[in-house]
Amino acid sequence: MSASLEPKISRTSSVDEKQDNVLFKSKIQKLIQSKDNNNLYRLLKKNKKSRTSYKQLKYEGIIYKIGQNLCIKADRRIDYVAKLIKIIKLVDNDDEIYPLIKVQWYYRKFELEKIPKPYMDYISENEVFKTNEYDYIEIESIVSLASILTYEEFDQLETMNDTTYFMRAAYINGTFQPPIEEWTTTCICQKPPNPDLKYIQCEACQGWCHLNCLKLTKEKAKKILKFICPKCQQ
Ligand SMILES: [Zn+2]
Ligand SMILES: [Zn+2]
To answer: How confident is the model at residue 105 (pLDDT cuts 50, 70, 90)?
Structure first.
């Protein structure tokens, strides 16, 4: 009796298992289609074959290491910047591999919300703000390495490219750390410097003044051989 039942039980359970796996696979496909990599990670991290202990990855001939900063493309934009936190190989029941990376986002100017307009004038297109936001994303999102300098380093650059940024604050839960009021200021107006605006440098104090604040046009400023700021003239 029990002998004749056994095959029946085992056959039933294998059909269930197969159905489970079909469901599981279609769940994975749905997550991939909707680019829901955070939930894909949650789903597959339990698999014993999934690994997160890689120190570097090679993508399109370039080696990327944990802790390096990256230019990232998403939604057809290639403007995002993030730090590489983890390299992950997710594996499903059929040993299919889904590689992902975990990144910590930096915000750029266009991602900031509810910042008063005058403050936005201090912020550069080449500026980034470290956040406490993390995501799992596809390796194919990597565009290149990014370099993130201090404002002082960035200010000294003679040439730059579109993978060079600077950072003078973090942006955590909608506020700058340190707050804008504590950022180093420049010019007679005592505002934080924005490298995107036109300035003239004082030969005496090396400080920068807005051409606007001095009521100077670009053409007039070019003709000044030795600029001494109003503060140093006193
Ligand atoms: Zn000014
Ligand atoms: Zn000066």
So the answer is: very high
Q: Give the end-to-end CA distance of the chain in Å, rounded to a whole number.
A: 108
**Rounded to the nearest whole angstrom, what is the distance from the C-alpha of residue 186 to the centroid of ligand 2?**
10
HEC per residue, 3-40:
HHHHHHHHHHHHHHHHHHHHHHHHHHHHHHHCCCHHHH
Tell which CATH classification among 3.20.20.370, 2.30.30.490, 3.90.1150.10, 1.10.150.50 matches the domain 7-197. 2.30.30.490
Neighbours of ion ligand 1 (CB under 5 A): 187, 189, 210, 213
What does the domain layout of the chain look like in residue ranges? 7-197
Q: Given this model, what pLDDT does residue 43 score?
A: 93
**What residues have their beta carbon closer than 5 A to ion ligand 2?**
202, 204-205, 207, 229, 232
- pLDDT tens string 194-226: 999 999 999 998 889 999 999 999 999 999 999
- Say what the pLDDT of residue 158 is: 85
**pLDDT at 15 (0 to 100):** 74
Q: How close is the Cα of 121 to the center of ligand 1, in Å?
A: 11
